[in-house]
Amino acid sequence: MNVVDTKSEKHEGWNLPPAVAPDGEGELLEVSMGPHHPSTHGVFRMDVTLDGERVIRLKPVFGYLHRNHEKLAEGQTYLASIPYTDRLDYICSLTNNWAYALAVEKLAGQEVPERAEYVRVILGELTRVQNHALAVGFLLQDMGASGTPLMYGFREREEILDLFETLTGSRMMCNYMRFGGCRVDPTAEWLERARKIVAKLPKFVDEFEALLIGNEILIARTQGTGILPPDLAVNAGVTGPVLRASGVNYDLRKVDRYSIYDRFDFKVPLGEHGDVYDRFMIRLLELRQSLRILEQALKDIPGGPVMDPKAKIRNFRPKPGEAYGRIEAPKGELGFYLISDGGPNPYRYRVRPPSLINLTILEDMCLGQNVADVVLILGSVDIVLGEVDR
Amino acid sequence: MKTVEEIKAAIEAAVPGAGVEIVLNPGPAAQHSLRLAPESALAVATFLRDDADLALDHLSNVTGVDWPDKEIAEKVKVTRTVAKTVDGVEQQVEETVEETRKRVEPGCLEVVYHLFSVAKKHGPVVLRMRTENRSDRVELPSMTHIWRSADFQEREIFDLYGVVFKGHPDLRRLLMWDEFKDHPMRKDYVEPDDYEYEPTPHDHVLARAQEHQKKIEAAGNKE
Amino acid sequence: MDENLKIELGKQGIVVTTLQELYNWGRRSSVWPMNFGLACCAIEMIATTMARYDLARFGAEVFRPSPRQADLMIISGTVTKKMAPQVVRLYNQMAEPRYVIAMGACAISGGPFKQGYNVLKGIDRYIPVDVHIPGCPPRPEALLQAFIALQKKIDGQHLTGEDRPRFLDAEAQGEFPVPEQGEHDLVPTSNKGVWPIKIQGLGTRD
C-alpha cells in the first residue's frame, strides 16, 4: 500500500497536492475519465495521469452541468428561485429548499412557526435517509456490486418518495418550503403513514448492514484507501460525512443549532481513519441517528399553523443587507449567501455547494492509489453534479 | 465570539497598518464584515487562521460580487450670470438655478469570504476585498495558500467575474470552456442571441423576443 | 397476408410471419440503452430500471456504458453548451440502428434553465430525436410510455420503400457535425437538416 504522506509540515505545502514521482519505468498514460463515464455520478470528468496503475496526477474538470442557477436567480424574484434550488442537489430537494428558506428568513428577519420547524426536520431527515441509502448503493455499484445494494437503497427510497409525493405533489422536485414556513400542512393520515414507514426503516438498515459490512471484498478494497487526514480536511473546507469520517466533530445540527435540532437527542458518529470504509460506515451510522430524530419529531409534533401568518409571499422585498445561512445537508454544509438591494430580486445569490468543495481534496486522496480506486474514492465523497456545477 | 470591532482591534494589534475597515450590514441578519486592503490581506488572513482565540480554520464560502459603474444623478444649485432684458434695458443679472448633474461612481469587483471556526465552533466572520476597477486592475491576492478550500471557488470567480487571483497555483476557468472569452456573471454580460419561440413571453424574455424579431427582419430586408 | 387467416392458422399451431415483422420484433424487444446520465432525470431513469418499475419487462434493462454496444440514447437531463459536443460525438459513435429519447423538459428545450447562457435549448438542434417526454423530471411511468412509443415506432418501420428508416438508406446522413466551442457560443448553433424541425400541420419551428 502506497499512501502518500500529506502531512508534510503544518500549513505548508497545502496550496498544492503533494507531488508523486513516477518510478521511471515505462511511459506515463494520460486518461480522461468522463464526462461520459458510468461511475462518475453524472457528467464529471477527471484528467488522470497514470504511471502503470498508479495515479500520479488528477485534475477534475467541471462545468458539464453548469446551468447558470446563480445568474437565473438574480433575474427573478426570491420566491421564483425555490423550484431552482430543488434542482441543485436533485436527490435531496427538500434540504436545498430548507437552506434557501433559512437564508432568506435570516435576510428578512422572518419567524417560522413551531409546527413548520417540526415538518422541516421530519422532511430533512427523511431526505438524509434516502440520500445516504443511495450514496451507499452507488458506492457499492462503483465497486462492482452491480445491482443488489443499489436496488435495496432504491426500494426504501421509493417508500420515502411516496411520502414526499402525497405531501408535496412531486417525487423529486418538491418545491415545498416557503419563507416563514411550509406550503401545505401534513394531515394526520400523512403523519401516521410516515410513522409506519419510519418504524419499518431500522429493519432495512439492519438488512443493509448484514448484506454489506462483513463482506471481504468490501473490506479489502475500502480499508486504507483514500485516507484524508483531519487537519487537511478542515483546511480544505470539507464538510459533512466526509469530514466526520476523518474524526472531526463538526455537525451543523449541533454547532449552529438551527431550527429545533437542540430539542432532539442524537449523536454525531465519528470515524477514526478517514478512509473509504469510514466514510461508508459513517453514512450507515448517520442513517440510524436520523431515524432516532425522526421518531422523536413524529412523536412530539405540535399543532398550529405551518406558515407564519405575517409572512409576505407576494411582493416580497427584503430590506437592503446581506445574509449567509447554512444547514447540514446530507452532503455537507449547504449555504446560501444573499445580498439584497431592496428590490424584488436578490442582487447577489450565491450557493455554497458542499459537493464542489468536498472535491478540493480529491487529488490528494487519489495520488498514489490505483486507478480502479479512483471511482471508489469519488463515490465515497458522494457528489451530485447539479450541485457541483450549478 | 468576538464582535467585529474587537476583531478589528485584534487585527490592528497583530498586523500594524493593516487598513481594516468595518462594513456594517443594515439588514436583520447583522452579519457585519471587514474590508481588507489587498496589500495586507494575506498577513491578516494568516493571523485570523492562526490566532488562538479566533482560530478561523474553516473558509466556508468565497463569493464574487459585481458592482458596475453607477450613474448618480444629484441636484446642485448653480449661480451664474445671465443677460436679461429688464424694463427695456439689457442687464447682467445673477441667477440661481437648480441643475441635475450626473456623476459616475466607478464600479469594482468584490470578493467576499465567509470564515468559521471548526475548533471553536463559532462564526461567521466575513471578509471583503475590492478590486480597483472592473477592466484592467482586477488583481487580488489568492487565499489558496492559507485555506485550500479557496482553490476551486477562486477559480470559479476568475471564470465568471474575471477577478485575477495572484498567487493561485492553477488559475484556469472552472465552469466554462477554456476558449470562452466573457465573464457571464457580470451584470453587463450580453448573452448570445439564441432566442427561441415561446408562447407567452414576458418581461426580459419579451424584450429579447422583440430584439430577436428585429434582427430577423433586418436580415430579411438585406436579402 | 390476411389478418384473419393468420389468426386462424395460429389457432392450428402454425405461426406465420413476415421477415419485416420478425426483424422488427427482434429489434424492438432488445433495445439496449446507453448508460448515460446527464442530470436530474438520470435519477428517475435509474429508478425506472429498479425493482418497482422494472424496465426489464421491455427487454431494455441492459445498460451499456459503451456507445458501440448501445441502440438507444436517453438524453436524461440538461444538455449544456459545454456538454453538447460530447453528446453529439457519442451519438456519432453509436452503431445504426440507433434511437434517441429526449427525456424531460431540459433535453427538449432547455426547460426551466432555458434562459441560461450555458444551456442548450434542446438537443434536437444537433441530433434527430425519436421520442420526446415532457416533465421535470418525467415520472418513471412516462419513461416506460416512451419505451412503448419507441417500440411501436420500430414495429411500424418498413424494410424497403421510400419511408424506410435511416439505417437502411445508404444515402442518409450518418455522421452529424460536432459543434465547436467558440468564444461566446457554440459554432454552429444548430445542425442543418436537423433544425428547424418540421412539424406536420404547423410548419417549421424557429
What attributes does this structure have?
heterotrimer, A: 390 residues, alpha+beta, globular, C: 206 residues, alpha/beta, Rossmann fold, three-stranded parallel beta sheet
Write the layout of secondary structure elements.
The complex is a heterotrimer of chains A (390), B (223) and C (206).
Chain A: E1 28-33, E2 45-51, E3 54-61, H1 69-74, H2 82-86, H3 93-108, H4 114-143, H5 148-168, E4 177-178, E5 181-182, H6 188-212, H7 216-222, H8 230-235, H9 241-245, H10 252-255, H11 276-300, E6 321-329, E7 332-340, E8 348-352, H12 354-358, H13 362-366, H14 371-381, H15 385-389
Antiparallel strand pairs in A: 1-2, 2-3, 4-5, 6-7, 7-8
Helix pairs in contact in A: 3-4, 4-5, 4-11, 4-14, 5-6, 6-11, 11-14
Chain B: H1 4-14, E1 21-23, E2 33-35, H2 41-50, E3 58-67, E4 70-86, E5 89-105, E6 108-117, E7 122-130, E8 139-141, H3 150-160, E9 164-166, H4 203-222
Parallel strand pairs in B: 2-7, 8-9
Antiparallel strand pairs in B: 1-2, 3-6, 4-5, 6-7
Chain C: H1 3-11, H2 19-28, H3 40-49, E1 72-76, H4 84-93, E2 99-103, H5 104-109, E3 131-133, H6 140-155, E4 180-181, E5 186-187, E6 198-199, E7 203-204
Parallel strand pairs in C: 1-2, 2-3
Antiparallel strand pairs in C: 4-5, 6-7
Helix pairs in contact in C: 2-6, 3-6
Describe the overall structure:
The complex is a heterotrimer of chains A (390), B (223) and C (206). Helix content of chain A is 45%, strand content 12%. Chain A is α+β, with helices and mostly antiparallel strands. In chain A, strand 4 (177-178) and strand 5 (181-182) form a beta hairpin. The radius of gyration of chain A is 21 Å and the shape is globular. Residues 1-11 of chain A have low confidence and may be disordered. Chain B contains four helices and nine strands; from the N terminus they run H-E-E-H-E-E-E-E-E-E-H-E-H. The mean pLDDT of chain B is 84. Chain C has 206 residues and is of the alpha/beta class. The longest helix of chain C is centred in the C-terminal third of the chain and has 16 residues, at 140-155. Chains in contact: A-B, A-C, B-C. Chain A binds chain B through residues 11, 14-16, 59, 62-63, 66, 68, 70-71, 75, 106-109, 232, 234-239, 248, 250, 255, 318-324, 326, 333, 335, 337, 339-340, 347-348, 350, 352, 356-357, 359-361, 389, and chain B through 25-29, 31, 49-50, 57-61, 63, 65, 112, 114, 118, 121, 124, 126, 144-149, 151-153, 169-170, 173-177, 184-185, 204.
